[in-house]
Amino acid sequence: MNSTIGGAEDSGRVNRIIATAVGYGTIAFTLAILLFFLVIPVGVIVTKAFYNGDTFTLAYFRLLFANDLQMTSIWNSLAIGIATTILTTLLALPLAIVNARYEFRGKTLLSGLLLVPMVMPPFVGAIGILRFFARHGSVNLQFMDWGWIDRPIEWLGEGNVFWAVVILEVLHLYPIMYLNLTAALANIDPSLEEMANTLGVKRWRILKDIVWPLARPGYFAGAIIVFIWALTDLGTPLLVGYEATMPVRIFTLVTDVNENPVGFALVFFVIVLTVGIFLGSKLLMGGKKYEMMARGHVTSGIRRPSPLGTLGIYLLLLTTVVIALVPHFSVMVVSVGDKWFMTPMPEHYTIKYYLAILETELAFTGIRNSMLLSTASMLLDVVLGLLIAYVVVRKLIPMANLLDSLVMVPLALPGIVLAFGYVVTYTGTFLDPLDNPIPLLIIAYAIRRLPFMVRSAAAGLQQTNVALEEASATFGASRFYTIRKIIMPLVFANLVAGGLLCFAYAMLDVSDSLILAMKDKFYPMTKAIYALFLEHGTGEFIASALGMIGMLILAACILGASMILGKKMGELFRSG
Amino acid sequence: MRVTFEGVTKKYGDFTAVRDLSLTIEDGALHFLLGPSGCGKTTTLRLLAGLETLTQGRILFDDQDVTKVDSADRGIGMVFQNYALWPHMTVTQNVEYGLKLRKLSRSEVSDRVRDVLGYTRLEPFATRLPGQLSGGQQQRVALARAMAIRPNVLLLDEPLSNLDAKLRLEMRDNITSIHQQTGITTVYVTHDQKEALSMGTAVSIQRAGQIVQTDSPRQLYWKPATPFVAGFIGETNLIAGTYLGDRRVETALGEWALDEVGEDFAAGDAVTLSVRPESVVVHLDDDTPATTSSLGNPVNGFTLRLKHLTYLGDTEHLRLGDDADTELKASLFNVEAHHLAPDDIVRCSVRPSALRMFQPEHDLSSGT
Q1: Considering Cα of B170, then B171, then B176, then B181, what sign does the dihedral take?
Q2: First vs last Cα of chain B: how many Å apart?
């Protein structure tokens, strides 16, 4: 026998102790981050909403509910959320059915194209849309050229601005719904439907009695995300100039929150609303997740459409893609348009605004800042996400599910609320965003995207048999050696995909960037775009060019993630 | 390395998986833990491996208490039921993983890898990934990986359950010969009694978290300690009866004579008799005399109706008797032809030495 008890040498044991200490230190660090940058800021908001100094008061809420503008904006934002959710469902459902059930030439390419709209925050698209649909915008001018109309149509007039925001949101968010529905439908064993078919059940009854109940949890999980994102998106209403919405109100109130504490009441109200809806939907749907029995042939549910059907599918997909890309197209036209005045399309095209990015301080530093901040937050996400997923999946600490729920909170918590919380919590401390918002921006970006990373890593870990780790442990490997040598390589694809998404969404971030970055030199790309847009002269064009650059970077990231994860990508964008 | 369990208990919440278990595994043994699924045998193995912590009791390696020693420091090699091969590492990388953790020199590592791949006949596959191997080859990689570190104790958790019948036979010989070559103390968990009987130097029968009996395979078969063991190892007839004293038992079938009985029985006790079907001699030829007792009276001889007959080629299974109380299972071997048909009256007898007598068990199922 060569092994003594304590087979690994003593130096190995010391290493193990160090590694274990480092490991638990990291977990403690993770919990501290969640405490300081999730729990405490929310706690501060709640406290300040109810306390005037040391006295408990409900006065702020009375003020809030008595204020017509605030109340109108709450209703408007709820309406935006509901309308967006309904419309994305109607748009995404046929797409998901086609993707989950039919096989046709060019499917991979077209399914990929459907995701492209995700690559631009809707508020950037708003720049192009404003240009196209303005009173003297391209659309009106073109229609008058053709003699279809005599006077310009007020596309973005008082009554239409609501729909402008909704449409921009829908065009941006439908891919999330589509991914979710595809995942939900693809997860249904085709033999369940075939069974119903053999019993002679009619098509619509199969949908109603079998498909819908099984797809419902997946649908609601995605719908909640869409609803909350649309409800709390700041950039689009801000750019379109829709003042009477909740996020724009909060954005305005954050600057003078010390004089006007109604902001706390409003933000608290938003927290209750979103978290309530989130938990409510989880409670309603939570108990109804069905375990699929063993699947038969995965391919058996996939059909080839008839030639006419194929044509229909192409039409459906292409129309959707074309419409969804109108904002992107319009931004692109604005970015390359030259001497564009009172004509439907620019008379000349130029790349000078792209070159101008290099010379414009704001634009250039914006790209640089965003790349750095997004990279840093992505790395933080990968490390924290893997650790948290590992702790949760392997149930290493008591109440691991509580940690899981805590990490998922940012899905329900609007970015604008979190940013608001950071400002009120850390103003006047060494983390004061007015002095240097970089640490808070990195953490805010990271925490908001942590759920995606945790989901992605957990999905990989759940497919990794625990015996693989136990085998490593019996040979004398510490847990963290095992994570490095065994777990990391096995979930690498999940980490890359999750990391790409975290990076992409950090680049797209609007609310944290707009609220936390207060000085020019710290502006991330999105805030630079906003600031440039507000400038007179060529600002709008440079902003568009900047938007295009960002779009290309993000397109590459999302395409990469989608190629790595395939259909599983849909499972990242859901609430439960 | 001798392994000793002393009063070991393992609870998961309210559920007790292992209950006050004491057991000694001798140095160099190929020791089997055999029992129905859910009996706690895998938990016992995992406690030994240090993958689970004990609720009570201690575990000793020779004389050293390892109860609190980390799995990593026990120097065990384990073969998991699903092999747990790391899919991203080649056969060689899988095997050398444990060696590298031991900080052996590079030449020592490659020597040991070559050695172990040699006797598991895996050299041709050294650079393959586990996914490119057949089930039997994967099983050998798992074994090679565990053996490479020259463990104090080798633990096998149902290592053959994922293989087809033919491969299983081959791997049995393989494991036995590797055990004989290396002499490593090996603990082997299985629910397959044929594996245990054919390979084991010692077999422990486990039931509901406790060891019922530990013995050599031959002892277990012929001298089962309880009706459960008798029923679990091989086939048996369990017959309820009353002890008459003087090594005689009254049952619904008639009166039985035994060669020996334990000392704890008194006349009038309710008892259970066990008799193996192959010990029931069926008299195909009417002239054969029934076995006679020392008193000269015909005992252990019965005349019963043939209820059912199953032909299996090398054996035939007969069910004799009229109802559940009097049913007796019998086996015929190597009989080319006979005249028996259902409803025939058959004469049969049993050697007194083939009978075992127990205290009756309330639950005669293989309960878990």
Answers
A1: positive
A2: 31
Instruction: List CB contacts (< 8 A) between A485 and chain B.
Output: 97
Helices of type H across A35-137: 40-50, 59-66, 68-101, 107-115, 122-133
Q: Which CATH architecture has domain A11-289+300-572?
A: Orthogonal Bundle (1.10)
Kindly report the number of other CB atoms within 10 A of residue B307's CB atom. 16
- Say what the pLDDT of residue A299 is: 46
* Mean pLDDT on B317-339: 84
The C-alpha atoms of residue A370 and residue A357 are separated, in whole angstroms, by 14
- Interface contact A14, partner B, CB < 8 A: no
**pLDDT for residue A102:** 82
DSSP string of A405-447, one letter each residue: HHHHHHHHS-HHHHHHHHHHHHTTSTT-TTT--HHHHHHHHHH
> Residue B184's closest CA among B142, B219, B149, B138?
B149
How many C-beta atoms lie closer than 10 Å to residue B173's C-beta? Answer: 11
Q: Does B308 touch chain A (CB under 8 A)?
A: no
A349 — phi, psi (to 5°)? -120, 150
B80–A467: do the CB atoms touch at under 8 Å? yes
pLDDT of residue A293: 47
φ and ψ of B273, to 5 deg = -100, 145
**How confident is the model over B27-34, as a mean pLDDT?**
95
Domains and CATH numbers, chain B: 3-227 (3.40.50.300), 235-358 (2.40.50.100)
Residues 6+ apart with CB under 8 A from B64: A5
Average pLDDT over residues A99-115: 80
- Find which of B102, B112, B154, B186 to mutate to test the A interface (most A CBs within 10 Å of its CB): B102
User: CB pairs below 8 Å between A and B: how many?
Assistant: 99
Residue type, B219: Q
Instruction: Determine which helix (DSSP H) or strand (DSSP E) holds B22, and give its type and residue range.
Output: strand B15-25
Closest CA in chain B for residue A15: B101
What pTM did the predictor assign? 0.75
ipTM of the predicted structure? 0.74
Answer yes or no: is pLDDT of B233 > 60: yes
3-state SS class at B242 = strand
d(CA A497, CA A501): 6
- Is the CB of residue B184 less than 8 Å away from at least one CB of chain A? yes
Q: Where are the beta strands (DSSP E) in A463-562?
A: none
Looking at the predicted structure, is the pLDDT value of residue A5 above 60? Answer: no
Closest to A378 measured CA to CA, from A436, A486, A433, A452: A452
Residue B262 predicted with pLDDT over 90 = no
Identity of the residue in B61, B73, B84 whose CB atom sits nearest the CB atom of A476: B73
B63 touches chain A (CB under 8 A): no
> Kind and range of the H or E element at A544?
helix A539-565
- Dihedral of alpha carbons A192, A198, A201, A204, sign: positive
